[in-house]
Amino acid sequence: MKTTNWLRRPGVWAVTSALMLGGFAFAGSSAAAPNDAGARQSQVRIDRAPADAPKCDELATASPSTSDSGLDVQRIIARGKLVAGIDTNSYLWGSRDPDNGAIQGFDIDLVHALAAAILGDPNKVQLLAVPTDQRIPALQSGLVDVVVRTFTHSCAREKQVSFSADYFTTGQQILVPHGSQVSGLNDSIKGKRICTATGSTAESTLQATPYKAQEVPVANQLDCLVLMQLGQVDATITDGALAVSQHAQDHSLQIVPGQLDTEYYAVAVKLGSRDLVARINAVLQSYIANGGWQQSYDTWLKSYTGHEATPPAAHYTG
Amino acid sequence: MATPATTRPAPTRPDVPGPAGPQVAARRGGGLTAALTGTPPRRLQTGAALLALLALLFGVLTVWQVSSRSSAADNVVNHSQPLSDDAAQIFRSLADADTTAATAFLQAGAETAAVRAQYTGDIATASQLLTKAAAQSGAGDPGQQWITELNAQLPVYAGLVETAKADDRQGYPLGGAYLRYASAQMQTQMLGEAQNLYTAETARLHSDYADARSLPWAALGLGLVLLAALVRAQVRLFRETNRVFNPGLVLATLGATVALLWLGVGQAVASSYLADSDSKGATPLQVLNQAEIEALKCRAAENLNLVARGSTTAYETAWDQDKTTLSGRLAQAQSTTSGDATAQQSMSAALTSWHDWQSRHDTAHDANQNGNYDTALSDTIGSGTGTIDAAFTSLKGSLDTAAAHEQDQFRSLADSGRGATSLLAPGAGVLAVLAAAGVVMGVNRRVAEYR
């Protein structure tokens, strides 16, 4: 099968559900951070923006439209099925229930909402597990219509794919074992072994600090949890949404309060599919308005994050 | 004693030359030789003593060389081949445990008793064989290091697998990450050590084979020297006495000839049987072991790809590589066993299963690519006859049958090889003593004639 050749690429160790592989180098420079969680405490906020960082508005997106006449929307309707690139290894976001095989989570709820709005049936979906580093190629080759996979909206990625309105706010956080004295990227973390996923924003965050030599790189943020449970690392840096996911799988972990930066998740489609972006934005608008977003948040995330949350406000650009 | 030859000349030897005495001794040079060969009977006695010594030396050398070859052959059969096979079995058990752990993980809550028993059995077998191998290898043994490391890692691995299952049953993707971590420990560390152990044990097997099969050149050479000396002695005696046969020396010559032939032919036959036991037994067995190990790797890659659930393409890549290696190993196993109808039958069955496996893999792969994970899962680990699991089990069964046959071949050929020299050491020893006695007896009769 020609379309599946991307899965055969040699030597690829994709990250199970790490979010921000290389894509967030610019988040620190973002001017728009309206939903940035307040508590920063003693955190060192890292400004990692390179001098030549492209400036863009990460909240900017096409205005919503309920029109189904666009080519990309028509293709989905003609097929009668929405093909979505998802993750099956991010607990609470997209994971498989081993008892009944159902794939479920906050991202999966959104995929069903998209299918319900565009095709009239939430179950007219085909869920394809896509490795982290294959999210963009899968869209480019047309293997999937949308990627809903804790995918961060970044200016660099806007050159390769098109993003919908952002639907979740998150940021880098530090996870430590119970009883750890680590309070942030400061003297308290000196000499500790710090786990990050190779190529992730967490890695570049760490590399910009004096503690870069303490990095223990792994292929996948979930591998950090394995290493932490086996006592092989003392701290993990990953984004907040996945820190919550790890914490949900091991309650003895502590999430150090405060975020190191601010990032947004969005639905990604093939570059230039403006009609589909507009259609998805309309779905997101009503999904948020009719309480679907809130209900999904309450089901999957609220009891783990321990606080209320609202979706980021989109900047529609017409 | 003055000059008995002149005072009492042998009546039957009128043409015997006069006393050679000092001139002869002087001609032969050396004071000691002169003293020892002062007179013809002395000379005869000295010559006889040297000949007898040569015969005894030949006997001792033969017994020693044959015994060391026999004990090397015994080592092949009783020690190094079983250890090499055990090392392969350790590797197989570990690889099978890894494969089966992934199957059990994929079965999740519905883990079958058979799969559970297989996993437990693999861990127990590996553990027992490691203990056995540790007991049989001495300090400084090249395999010792790998045995120690494997012994330390096995319980850790088993613990990781249990943690993976426990997390999975909670519904946590962490379980999959644990299983991949456990499998990485197995694939990158433990199987490497098991491979090193196998290589070390197989190197010892080859060294024992070489020892057992080497021809005893020193004994053969000395035997030829002995024969030549016996013939030369008889020729000289004939010239001196005009008697064609000296019964003692003839007996000695016969004994030496038989011993030499027995030695040469026996060792050549043994060596040839041992060579066959290697080429028609041990070597095909090694190739079959390698093929089975590759089959287990393929199966592990396939299972772990489903465990990873699209989080990585690493297992797809591993399958593609292992698949090529396995095809190569199976072709090698088929050509190595080409002269053996029984093994060929198993091999063609194995190749059929491998063919089925690959086409079923492609079907399951396509299903997975189209998002039909559950279909791919049941195609891969399901219990029906059309599943990958069925093809894998059948391939493994055929390889096991072929391996058992090769093991029998090895044992029977190696036993024939050992049998060919079983009486050689004591027999050659007795013949050498007989030859020595013959020399002494024959020459003494001549010497008596001088009195």
What's the SSE blueprint?
The complex is a heterodimer of chains A (318) and B (451).
Chain A lengths: L59 E2 L9 H9 L2 E5 L2 E2 L3 E3 L6 E2 L1 H14 L5 E5 L5 H6 L5 E2 L13 E10 L1 E5 L17 E4 L3 H7 L7 E4 L2 H9 L5 E5 H10 L4 E3 L6 E8 L3 H16 L2 H14 L9 E2 L2
Parallel strand pairs in A: 1-15, 2-6, 2-7, 10-11, 10-12
Antiparallel strand pairs in A: 3-4, 4-5, 7-14, 8-14, 9-12, 9-13
Helix pairs in contact in A: 2-7, 2-8
Chain B lengths: L3 H4 L13 H8 L2 H6 L3 H68 L5 H24 L7 H26 L4 H40 L3 H25 L5 H62 L5 H23 L4 H29 L3 H9 L6 H33 L3 H26 L2
Helix pairs in contact in B: 4-5, 4-7, 4-8, 4-9, 4-13, 4-14, 5-6, 6-7, 7-9, 8-9, 9-10, 9-13, 9-14, 10-11, 11-12, 11-13
Q: For the largest sheet of chain A, list the strands in their spatial order.
A: 6-2-7-14-8
**End-to-end separation of chain B:** 11 Å
Total number of distinct structural domains of chain B: 1
N-to-C terminal Cα separation of chain A, in Å? 39 Å
Q: Oligomeric form of this entry?
A: heterodimer
Overall SS class of chain B: mainly alpha
Give Rg of chain A in angstroms.
19 Å
DSSP, total strands of chain A:
15
What string, H for helix and E for strand, traces the elements of chain B in order?
HHHHHHHHHHHHHH
Number of strand elements of chain B = 0
Ranges of chain B with pLDDT <50 over ≥5 residues? 1-30
Order of helices and strands of chain A: EHEEEEHEHEEEEHEHEHEEHHE
Integer-rounded radius of gyration of chain B: 35 Å
Largest sheet of chain B: none
Return the structural class of chain A.
alpha/beta
Q: Helicity of chain B, in percent?
A: over 70%
Task: Average the pLDDT over all residues of chain A and give the rounded result.
Answer: 82
* Average predicted confidence as pLDDT of chain B: 87
